[in-house]
Amino acid sequence: MDYFFAETLDHALQTARSKTAQGKTVKFIAGGTDLTVQIEDKLVSPGLLIDLTEIDELRGIKKEKMGLRIGALTTIAELAASSDLPACLLQGARSIGSPQIRNLGTIGGNICTASPCGDTLTPILALLGILTLNSPEGERKVPSEDFFLGPRKTALREDEILTEIWIDNQALEGNSAFRKIGKRNGQVISQVNTAVWLKKEPGSGRISDVRVSVGSVAPTPLRLRKVEQALCGKIVDKKLIEQAEGLVEMEISPISDVRAGRDYRSTVTRYLFRDALEESLGA
Ligand SMILES: Cc1cc2nc3c(=O)[nH]c(=O)nc-3n(C[C@H](O)[C@H](O)[C@H](O)COP(=O)(O)OP(=O)(O)OC[C@H]3O[C@@H](n4cnc5c(N)ncnc54)[C@H](O)[C@@H]3O)c2cc1C
To answer: Which of 63, 89, 125, 270 is the 20 to 30 A CA-CA neighbour of 221?
Structure first.
């Protein structure tokens, strides 16, 4: 396997294009915390790895007039230390792996791996994150909800690089929370995770806008539209929370796997959702 350090985005894209044309299987590598495991397990066997980690233009979190720009190579540790992130994304980042994994792993790698249990995915969906994908032809913007096509399947073409994640001011103005459960408290992959984002009308406390996403209960992270519809425009009380929890269970159809059983996942999603909702409401 060949290894190549790209110094610029253009360098990475052109190299990928020319090596693919020569018949090589090319993979981009960032922190390598997912990809090296996949190579070790022989799930992928690239002929060339293009290392993106020296491309400085893909790093960092920038607060701009209209929103937040997060470079794809920003590490999970950098996210976890940021004071600019909405709570759900901050909590999602802080829940990932160990300090070693957070120091190496990147948000771009977490998103492009597209594991249904990835802990930045549900926050990005709830925040309506927009992903910028670059290829030698230029760039395209893809709403995060259209990016995840199945377990480890995305809308990325072979020679495309995810360069940044955009979160609009509209999403930065709401309140949000993330919850995850795993087999232990630290260094653990989610059995289920969820993110809730909402905005309340000042004064009445009525929910004027809300988004709920769940992970690890379907082949891709999901928005729960029926739950959102049930909550939107309402003043939340105990009865409404119970009704919304019931809809959570109706909207998901988790499977049993090595991490958790179907029934456990269903029940626990309901309670993680309630917890995240209550935190977002400031209860
Ligand atoms: C011990 C351990 C614990 C973990 N715990 C968690 C956890 O709690 N929660 C969690 O969500 N994940 C966890 N992970 C998974 C992993 O650490 C994260 O998904 C991490 O964010 C991956 O980022 P990376 O930069 O290392 O990706 P890489 O391994 O470098 O890449 C992953 C995939 O994305 C592609 N890729 C990377 N960057 C780009 C880009 N900019 N454009 C296009 N394609 C790209 C690569 O080609 C590869 O297919 C864990 C992993 C390990 C080994």
So the answer is: 63
